[in-house]
């Protein structure tokens, strides 16, 4: 009786496995963390108002830039079919500043970064953090990261982990400087709201 | 139909009635996305995203807590912090379905849904997924683990068979202790707790991050005074006046002190965004006072040394697949006069790969090999020490597992887990878990679960090889060389087995308000107990697969959590009926009724109030001589009040644990002929600083 039961179980599991063709999808703790963070980024856009010059053309999409080694994988796939404030959302990926011609202000890549509405600065950019923030500080860009010390370096929203849950902190001074208005609903949910000018010790 | 058949039918009806009643409250709404797909998160509000918590103990990889194939309770770092408690078992008692008894000041019997003992070998204990059980006795001696309370990120308690994910010995549950990563605790941390009895618990930690490196160094010292010095310690005996005289019972004192030095280190190197290497070593040295076992009480001091080391390589491939390779080694060296000297070493190599196939299969495959050497030092220093025939022992384990989470439709997910384990000393066996998860609404606020599981427990060296004779009988009148307490080896033991049918329901009833209900029927087979035979008038005990048992019950938990605090209440009904009346199963049976309540309030100006309450109806076990030992019902309340200062960098806490009871027990363990009460109510104060 027991042998027959196991045969059945093995058969069921074989049916599970038979059609497998390994395909990309991350499901580690790390990648799930970034799935959640991607959804946070998507939500943030509903609680942020950009100045007129950044949002006047209703046909232009909202651009989310990811600079550095992208940890999100395919986490942004679902936003292809979604709209925020009536606009499409476009994801653009950029190499880190190290690979770019930093001194060339007219460089197309740098211009593309400055066109972003949201810029997520990946951990690979930790050493260039201040430089990356300065690159977009005059361009009404909502900077987001999960690098320790991001608000102190002049970044606007920083993800932190707490009890295996994603939390975020907001630097309202940096947001004001970028002329990005963060609604009070979002501020209320922040783990920490800081009014921090970039410190001299912050990462450069 | 036979009376036994009627009983079984009744239990199935019990399960079905609960199953239907849970389902009735659920709403049937529109289609939805699979929870594992990123799309789900994009349907959530920020508030909902902030509540996404991941759990790894159900299927060896991160999953949302409300969509697991087995019920899991999570004790968070916040729960640990505000409890003020300094040991893991006392924390566990506030978890639904956990049975915990304090046997001595440092020693607890803790089991998932009962079956708890000195050696609770039906519950598998892990630290970060790595075994923390003794390959000699099974189970885990929590007080010897090189782990400090404030270094724990969370404790996941799996209720029900977990063998398909974690292998041999996760018979009735799994306790996975997950530690904080260095990057989450950067800086210097110092904590010290003092009690009214003069106990202390001190913890120093330094964590740092430089470039791709991060590390954590922790050191701690714990000092527990004995029960006699803490206003308790009254000894009682459950044997005859004659045996009391022979073993010198009148001279026993409750010398259950403990002094423990612990060190724990962990380092991580982020080779790239997709590759991480982590490694660490923990060491603990424990001294304990002596105790009676099997009628023998030498009155000395025992010590335990434990070393735990690991190296783990984690990688995320370009195509999104993830996996790891890991080595861990556990080493223990002990000398306990009442029992024996022993040392053992485990080396384990493990690998795991997670990938997605055909879009709908989320698959984990992996396996491990483990090499164990045990030396029980059979050179007897006293005539009454335990002897293990054939020591030293070289043993091997090997296991392979496959887990597939199959998104069958937008609403229905099936999860299949299957695992086989080879053990060189007994037999190869199988474990499995098959689960259907059905979401009843688009938001996945209501999820229904149905599971079938099988797991097994492998008898380690101790029940198979032990040989001891204790309490010499006087000659005359007895012939020379006879003893009152005798245990003999049993080398033909088979695995204990469990078959489980489960149903569960999780619901998000309102913002921050969740309900979890789980019900189960379990059939145990070939449970190992002790049989007694007589040679003349002298009893000889021997381990044997004596018989099976039925177990059934339900657990309900309601939790409300928000920015101002937390309130959770639970009730557990856990019944257990052995096949033969007074059939000893080497453990206490579960308390039928258990109730728990946790309340936490974050007040203004940095004040926090915390309380934990637990009610447990009577626990019952059998001694080696089939005497019924009853622990009696108990109420347990802990209170704590904490105040932060210096912008949250300092905190002072005062509290009282077990407020209602001046003393507890005595609770008898397996093979004990006597036991003593332990202190209950205890005032404590704690100071913590962060730099």
Commentary on this structure:
The complex is a heterodimer of chains A (204) and B (691). With 204 residues, chain A is of the alpha/beta class. Chain A has helices at residues 2-17, 29-44, 52-55, 108-115, 129-136, 172-177, 184-189; strands at residues 22-23, 48-49, 62-67, 83-84, 87-94, 118-121, 142-145, 157-162, 165-171, 181-182, 192-194. Chain A has an eight-stranded mixed sheet, with helices on both faces. A two-stranded antiparallel sheet of chain A has the order 2-10. The longest helix of chain A is centred in the first third of the chain and has 16 residues, at 2-17. Chain B has 691 residues and is mainly beta. Chain B is built from eight helices and 40 strands. In chain B, the strands form seven sheets. Chain B has a 22-stranded antiparallel barrel. In chain B, strands 3-8-9-6-7 form a five-stranded mixed sheet. Chain B is globular, with a radius of gyration of 25 Å. Mean pLDDT of chain B is 88; it is low at 12-39. Classes of the chains: A alpha/beta (204), B mainly beta (691). At the A-B interface, helix 1, strand 1, helix 2 and strand 9 of A face helix 2, helix 3, strand 18, strand 19 and strand 21 of B. Strand 1 (22-23) of chain A pairs antiparallel with strand 18 (340-357) of chain B, so a sheet runs across the interface.
For the terminal residues of chain A, how far apart are their CA atoms?
A: 69 Å
Main sheet characteristics of chain B: 22 strands, antiparallel, barrel
Number of strands of chain A: 11
Shape of chain A: globular
Strand content of chain B: over 45%
Number of strands of chain B: 40
Overall radius of gyration of chain B: 25 Å
Percent of residues in helices of chain B comes to under 10%
Q: DSSP strand (E) fraction of chain A?
A: 15-25%
Question: Using only CA atoms, what is the Rg of chain A?
Answer: 21 Å
Secondary-structure class of chain B:
mainly beta
Spans of chain A of at least 5 consecutive residues whose pLDDT stays below 50 are 10-30
Number of helices of chain B: 8
**Which two chains touch over the largest interface?**
A-B, 53 and 56 residues
* Overall geometric form of chain B: globular
Q: Summarize model confidence as the mean pLDDT of chain B.
A: 88
Major β-sheet annotation of chain A: 8 strands, mixed
- Helical content band of chain A: 25-40%
Low-confidence stretches of chain B: 12-39
Element order, helices and strands of chain A? HEHEHEEEHEHEEEHEHE
- Strand line-up across the major sheet of chain A: 4-5-3-6-7-8-9-11
């Amino acid at each position: 009786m027991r042998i027959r039961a196991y045969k059945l179980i093995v058969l069921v599991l074989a049916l599970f496995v038979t059609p497998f063709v390994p395909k990309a999808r991350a499901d580690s703790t790390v990648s799930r963390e970034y799935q959640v963070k991607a959804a946070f980024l998507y939500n943030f856009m509903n609680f942020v108002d950009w100045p007129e010059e950044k949002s006047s053309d209703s046909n232009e999409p909202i651009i989310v830039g990811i600079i550095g080694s992208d940890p999100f994988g395919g986490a942004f796939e679902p936003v292809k079919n979604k709209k925020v404030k009536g606009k499409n959302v476009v994801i653009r990926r950029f190499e880190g500043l190290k690979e770019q011609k930093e001194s060339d202000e007219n460089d197309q890549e740098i211009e593309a970064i400055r066109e972003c509405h949201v810029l997520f600065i990946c951990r690979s950019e930790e050493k260039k953090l201040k430089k990356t923030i300065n690159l977009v500080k005059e361009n009404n860009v909502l900077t987001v990261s999960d690098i320790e010390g991001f608000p102190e370096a002049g970044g606007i929203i920083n993800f932190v982990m707490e009890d295996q849950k994603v939390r975020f902190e907001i630097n309202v001074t940096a947001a004001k400087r970028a002329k990005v208005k963060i609604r009070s609903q979002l501020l209320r949910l922040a783990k920490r709201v800081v009014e921090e000018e970039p410190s001299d010790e912050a990462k450069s | 139909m036979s009376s036994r058949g009627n009983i079984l039918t009744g239990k199935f009806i019990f399960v079905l009635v609960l199953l239907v009643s849970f389902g009735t409250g659920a709403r049937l709404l529109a289609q939805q996305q699979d929870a594992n797909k990123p799309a789900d998160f994009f349907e959530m509000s920020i508030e909902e995203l902030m509540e996404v918590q991941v759990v790894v103990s159900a299927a060896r990889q991160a999953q949302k807590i409300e969509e697991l194939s087995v019920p899991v309770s999570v004790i968070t770092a916040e729960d640990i912090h505000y409890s003020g408690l300094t040991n893991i078992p006392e924390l566990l008692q506030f978890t639904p379905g956990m049975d915990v008894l304090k046997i001595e000041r440092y020693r607890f019997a803790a089991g998932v849904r009962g079956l708890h003992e000195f050696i609770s070998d039906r519950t598998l204990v892990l630290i970060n997924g790595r075994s923390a059980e003794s390959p000699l006795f099974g189970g885990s001696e929590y007080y010897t683990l090189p782990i400090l309370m404030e270094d724990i990120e969370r404790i996941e308690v799996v209720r029900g068979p977990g063998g398909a994910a974690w292998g041999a010995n996760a018979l009735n549950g799994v306790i996975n202790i997950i530690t904080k990563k260095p990057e989450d605790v950067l800086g210097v941390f110092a904590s010290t707790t003092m009690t009214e009895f003069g106990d202390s618990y001190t913890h120093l930690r330094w964590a740092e991050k430089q470039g791709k490196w991060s590390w954590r160094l922790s050191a701690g010292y714990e000092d527990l005074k004995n029960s006699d010095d803490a206003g308790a310690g009254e000894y009682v005996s459950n044997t005859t006046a004659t045996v009391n005289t022979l073993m010198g019972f009148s001279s026993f004192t409750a010398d259950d002190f403990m002094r423990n030095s612990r060190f724990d280190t962990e380092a991580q190197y982020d080779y790239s965004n997709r590759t991480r290497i982590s490694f660490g070593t923990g060491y603990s040295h424990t001294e304990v006072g002596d105790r009676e076992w099997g009628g023998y009480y030498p009155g000395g001091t025992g010590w335990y040394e434990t070393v735990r080391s690991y190296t783990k390589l984690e990688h995320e491939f370009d195509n999104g697949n993830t996996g790891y390779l890991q080595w861990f080694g556990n080493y223990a060296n002990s000398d306990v006069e009442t029992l024996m000297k022993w040392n053992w070493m485990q080396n384990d190599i493990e690998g795991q790969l997670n990938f997605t196939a055909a879009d709908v299969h989320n698959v984990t495959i992996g396996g491990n090999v483990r090499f164990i050497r045990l030396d029980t030092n059979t050179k007897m220093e006293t005539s009454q020490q335990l002897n293990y025939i054939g020591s030293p022992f070289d043993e091997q384990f090997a296991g392979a597992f496959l887990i597939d989470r199959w998104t069958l439709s937008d609403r229905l997910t099936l999860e299949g887990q299957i695992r086989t384990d080879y053990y060189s000393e007994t037999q190869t066996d199988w474990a499995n878990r098959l689960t259907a998860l059905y979401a009843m609404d688009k938001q996945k606020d209501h999820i229904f679960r149905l599971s079938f599981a099988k797991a097994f427990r492998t008898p380690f060296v101790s029940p198979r090889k032990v040989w001891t004779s204790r309490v010499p009988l006087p000659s005359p009148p007895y012939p020379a060389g006879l003893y009152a307490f005798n245990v003999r080896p049993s080398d033909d033991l088979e695995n204990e087995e469990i078959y489980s049918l489960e149903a569960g329901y999780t619901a998000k009833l309102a913002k921050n308000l969740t309900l979890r209900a789980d019900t189960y029927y379990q059939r145990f087979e070939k449970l190992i107990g002790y049989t007694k035979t007589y040679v003349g008038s002298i009893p000889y005990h021997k381990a044997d697969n004596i018989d099976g048992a039925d177990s059934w019950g339900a657990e309900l938990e309601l939790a409300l959590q928000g920015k101002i605090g937390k309130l959770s209440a639970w009730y557990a009904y856990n019944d257990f009926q052995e096949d033969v009346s007074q059939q000893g199963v080497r453990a206490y049976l579960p308390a039928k009724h258990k109730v728990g309540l946790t309340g936490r309030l974050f007040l203004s100006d940095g004040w926090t109030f915390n309380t934990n309450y637990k009610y447990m109806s009577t626990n019952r076990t059998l001694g080696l001589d089939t005497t019924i030992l009853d622990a009696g019902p108990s109420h347990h309340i802990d209170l704590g009040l904490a105040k932060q200062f210096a912008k949250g960098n300092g905190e002072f806490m005062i509290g009282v644990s077990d407020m209602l009871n001046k003393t507890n027990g005595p609770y008898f363990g397996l093979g004990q002929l006597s036991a003593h009460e332990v202190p209950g109510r205890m005032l404590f104060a704690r100071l913590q600083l962060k730099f």
